């Protein structure tokens, strides 16, 4: 059996569980604030662990988001747009987390270990980070593992096709950061096109 259909089947089952829980909980007589609390804890809570360790496609996260919108819309008349639901409670929102944004935030854990190595890392952090670094070096345009993370044009099509790296790269693209070229050694900078260093 191919890996992709198994993964798709797993994600479909996960979505089905969220939808079934939402249907069951929608029968309760909850206020809109109660619905937002239930959405956070019982519907989205179990999902966060899965999307932290897996490269979940945006299409799947969109379906989860749609399920949450439908769950919240049952208790709100007139129907409130999702951006309003995402606002904090101080701004008259429901503080609902967007699955796509949360997925990117959860990927920061892996990016942090690749970009800023800890002085006292946990064993599994060392193992996973070493594997990620090795793959970045092996399948990228340049040997230093950090360059493909920081510079989109240094990412080979091979490394972009790997699911976990695709998620990491999308997260890096969302982050607004400045590169401190003084932190790089001359060997790394010499491998870059001049337009990268002096745009």
Automatic annotation (TrEMBL):
Q: What is this protein called?
A: Uncharacterized protein
What are the top taxonomic ranks of the organism?
A: Eukaryota, Fungi, Fungi incertae sedis, Mucoromycota, Mucoromycotina
